[in-house]
C-alpha cells in the first residue's frame, strides 16, 4: 500500500531491508526541504517569522510523539537514535540507581545497543547481567520472564520486537510484572514502534527507545520516552547551550526542566521536523493496519518458501514482517549478493545480534524485513530468484 | 581470462580451499579478521622460517570471494620470501583498487582482476591480503 508515496520504489526494486532502515515518503523529504529552503532558523532564540514556524514544528513534535506512543509530551526526549536513547538511560539513570550485585535481565536475541551499554555498566558498577531463557522458537515467554526474576532483579531491558527473530514480546504482561515487583522496565522499540501500536502508559514502560529512520523518518533522530518522575532523577550526558537556566563564574548553575535539559546544543531540527511528518504519515495509514499487512505478507512468504527445499528458515512462528533464512550450504552474504542481482535488497549478517548464535547455532543469516509498502508481488520476485538459486555461483562469481 | 574458467577456479577454491583448518603450534603468527567487517570471520596463521613463508593456514566463515581468495593467496605465498610476498600483496591490492600492477607475478590471483566491476565485493577480495599484511607487520614488530 501507499507505494506511490516513495520515490525510491520508482527504480523497480524490491526493498526488504526495512529492519535496517526504511524508505522515505515524499511528504517527509518535502518537510525537510521546506525547513532548509523556506524557514531555516535555530530554535528557541528567534523572534522572526521563520523562527516561529520552526519553533512551532519542533516543540509540537513532542505532542505528536506523545499521541503516537501514549505518553506525556514532557516525557519525550529527542536523541540521535535508539542507541543513544539506551545509552542515556544506562549511563544517565541506571549508573546512579543500581549497585554492585543488582541484576539486569536481558535476552541473547537483543541488539548490540541493548547489551553493550549494560556490559560497560557491569564493568563500572558491578551489576550482574543475566540472560532469560528463550523458547524453542527463540521467543521470550512471560513464564520465562517470571521464572528469571529474583529479589536481586532490578531491571528488565528487552526489545518489544527483536531484530532477527522478529518475535513480539508481551510487553503489557511483562510491564505489569515489573510494576508489581518494582523492577525498572526498559523497552527497545526500534523494531516495534514503526510497525505496531506501542502504548507507553498501558504497558507500564519506564524507558522506551526508538529511531526515526526505521519508521519513514530521517537518520540522526530518535526518541527516548521516560516516565516523568524518573527523568527528573536522570543526569544529562551532555552539557551546554539550550539546556541551562543560568551559570555563573562561581560554578553555580541551574539546568532547565525535563525534557529540554537532555538536549544540549542545537538539536537535529530538520530531522525532528522529518520525524514529525513521518509519524503523522504512519498514523494516517494506521498502525494496526500496518501490522496486519506485514503479518499477512510473512504468511504468504512462508507458504511460498515451503515449496523450495534448500531454504532453511529460523523464525517461522514470529508475528512480524521479519524472516531470517539461509539457502542451504550458501554463505548468507553470497545469497544477498545473488538477490541484489535480481534487484531484491536484503541484508546478510548477524544483524548486530552477535550472541544470538548461542541460541540458533548459526552466526549469519539473510534477513528479509518487510514494511507496509511491500507487496505479494515483491515476495514473488524474491521467491522466483530463490527457486533458481542452484545457479547462485554462476550469478555471483 | 575466460569467464567460465575464472568461475571454475574461484568455485574450486571456495568449495575445497587450500589449507583450511588451524593447527596448535606456537611457531605460527596468528590474526583474526573479525573486525574487518560485520560478517566475515576468518582466522589466519603463518609460519616463517629463515625469511621464507613455510606455511599459511586459515579457518572460519566467509563468503565465496573471501574464502576462495584466501585459498588462492595461501597457495601463491607459501615458499616465497617475505619480500617476494610483500611484492605479490602490493600488486594484488593495486589490481583490486584498479591501479597499475604486474599481472605476471600474480598467477591464479588474476582471477579477481574484474572484481572492481562489483564494488561491494572489493572488501571481500581484500580480506586475505589485509590479514597477510597484519601477519607480516607482526613479524617486523617481533624483529624490533
Could you please describe the fold and organization of this structure?
The complex is a heterodimer of chains A (397) and B (144). With 397 residues, chain A is an alpha/beta fold. Chain A folds into two domains: 26-284, Aspartate Aminotransferase, domain 2 (3-Layer(aba) Sandwich); 286-396, Aspartate Aminotransferase, domain 1. Helices cover 38% and strands 16% of the residues of chain A. Chain A contains 13 helices and 15 strands. With 144 residues, chain B is α+β, with helices and mostly antiparallel strands. Chain B contains four helices and three strands; from the N terminus they run αβββααα. Chain B has a three-stranded antiparallel β-sheet with strand order 1-2-3, with helices on one face. In chain B, strand 1 and strand 2 form a beta hairpin. Chains A and B meet through helix 10 and helix 13 of A and helix 1 and helix 2 of B.
Backbone shape of chain B? globular
- The number of distinct structural domains of chain B comes to 1
Strand content of chain B: 15-25%
For the largest interface in this structure, which chains are involved and how many residues does each contribute? A-B, 16 and 19 residues
CATH class of the largest domain in chain A: Alpha Beta
Q: Between the first and last Cα atoms of chain A, what is the distance in angstroms?
A: 36 Å
Termini distance of chain B? 43 Å
Nearest-angstrom radius of gyration of chain B?
A: 14 Å
**Low-pLDDT windows of residues of chain B:** none
Strand order of the largest sheet of chain B: 1-2-3
Q: Number of DSSP strands of chain B?
A: 3
Give the SSE order of chain A as H and E letters: EHHEHEHEHEHEEEHEEHHEEHEEHEHH
- Beta percentage of chain A is 15-25%
Total of domains of chain A: 2
Amino acid at each position: 500500500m501507499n507505494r506511490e508515496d516513495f520515490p525510491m520504489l520508482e527504480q523497480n526494486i524490491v526493498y526488504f531491508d526495512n529492519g535496517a532502515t526504511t524508505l522515505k515518503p515524499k511528504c517527509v523529504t518535502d518537510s525537510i526541504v521546506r525547513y532548509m529552503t523556506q524557514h531555516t532558523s535555530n530554535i528557541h532564540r528567534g523572534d522572526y517569522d521563520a523562527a516561529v514556524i520552526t519553533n512551532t514544528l519542533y516543540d509540537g513534535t513532542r505532542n505528536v510523539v506523545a499521541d503516537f506512543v501514549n505518553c506525556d509530551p514532557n516525557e519525550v526526549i529527542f536523541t540521535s537514535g535508539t542507541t543513544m536513547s539506551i545509552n542515556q538511560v544506562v549511563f544517565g539513570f541506571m549508573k546512579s540507581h543500581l549497585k554492585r550485585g543488582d541484576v539486569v535481565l536481558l535476552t541473547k536475541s537483543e541488539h548490540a545497543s541493548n547489551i553493550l551499554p549494560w556490559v560497560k555498566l557491569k564493568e563500572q558498577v558491578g551489576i550482574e547481567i543475566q540472560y532469560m531463557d528463550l523458547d524453542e522458537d527463540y521467543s521470550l515467554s512471560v513464564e520465562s520472564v517470571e521464572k528469571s526474576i529474583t529479589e536481586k532483579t532490578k531491571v528488565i531491558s528487552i526489545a518489544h520486537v527483536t531484530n532477527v527473530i522478529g518475535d513480539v514480546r508481551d510487553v503489557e504482561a511483562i510491564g505489569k510484572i515489573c510494576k508489581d515487583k518494582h523492577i525498572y522496565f526498559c523497552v527497545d522499540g526500534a523494531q516495534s514502534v514503526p510497525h505496531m501500536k506501542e502504548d507507553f502508559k498501558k504497558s507500564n514502560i519506564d524507558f522506551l527507545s526508538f529511531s526515526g529512520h526505521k519508521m519513514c523518518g530521517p537518520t540522526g533522530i530518535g526518541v527516548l520516552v521516560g516516565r516523568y518522575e524518573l527523568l527528573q532523577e536522570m543526569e544529562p550526558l551532555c552539557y551546554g547551550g539550550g539546556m541551562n537556566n543560568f551559570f555563573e563564574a562561581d560554578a553555580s548553575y541551574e539546568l532547565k526542566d525535563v525534557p529540554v535539559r537532555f538536549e544540549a546544543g542545537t538539536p537535529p531540527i530538520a530531522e525532528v521536523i522529518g520525524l514529525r511528518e513521518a509519524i503523522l504519515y504512519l498514523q494516517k495509514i494506521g498502525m494496526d493496519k500496518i501490522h496486519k499487512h506485514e503479518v499477512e505478507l510473512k504468511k504468504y512468504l512462508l507458504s511460498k518458501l515451503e515449496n523450495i527445499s534448500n531454504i532453511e528458515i529460523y523464525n517461522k512462528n514470529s508475528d512480524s514482517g521479519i524472516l531470517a533464512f539461509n539457502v542451504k550450504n550458501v554463505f548468507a552474504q553470497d545469497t544477498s549478493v545473488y538477490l541484489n542481482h535480481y534487484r531484491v535488497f536484503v541484508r546478510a549478517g548477524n544483524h548486530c545480534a552477535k550472541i544470538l548464535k548461542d541460541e540458533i547455532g548459526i552466526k549469519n543469516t539473510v534477513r528479509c524485513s518487510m514494511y507496509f509498502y511491500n507487496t505479494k508481488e515483491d515476495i514473488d520476485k524474491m521467491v522466483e530468484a530463490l527457486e533458481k538459486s542452484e545457479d547462485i555461483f554462476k550469478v555471483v562469481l | 581470462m575466460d569467464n567460465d574458467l575464472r568461475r571454475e577456479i574461484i568455485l574450486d577454491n571456495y568449495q575445497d580451499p587450500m589449507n583450511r583448518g588451524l593447527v596448535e603450534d606456537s611457531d605460527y603468527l596468528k590474526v583474526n579478521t573479525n573486525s574487518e567487517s560485520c560478517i566475515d570471520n576468518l582466522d589466519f596463521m603463518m609460519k616463517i622460517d629463515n625469511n621464507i613463508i613455510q606455511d599459511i593456514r586459515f579457518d572460519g566463515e566467509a563468503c565465496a570471494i573471501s574464502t576462495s581468495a584466501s585459498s588462492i593467496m595461501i597457495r601463491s605465498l607459501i615458499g616465497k620470501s617475505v619480500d617476494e610476498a610483500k611484492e605479490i600483496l602490493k600488486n594484488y591490492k593495486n589490481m583490486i583498487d584498479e591501479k597499475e600492477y604486474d599481472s605476471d607475478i600474480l598467477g591464479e590471483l588474476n582471477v579477481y582482476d574484474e572484481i572492481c566491476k562489483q564494488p561491494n565485493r572489493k572488501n571481500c577480495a581484500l580480506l586475505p591480503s589485509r590479514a597477510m599484511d597484519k601477519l607480516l607487520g607482526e613479524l617486523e614488530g617481533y624483529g624490533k
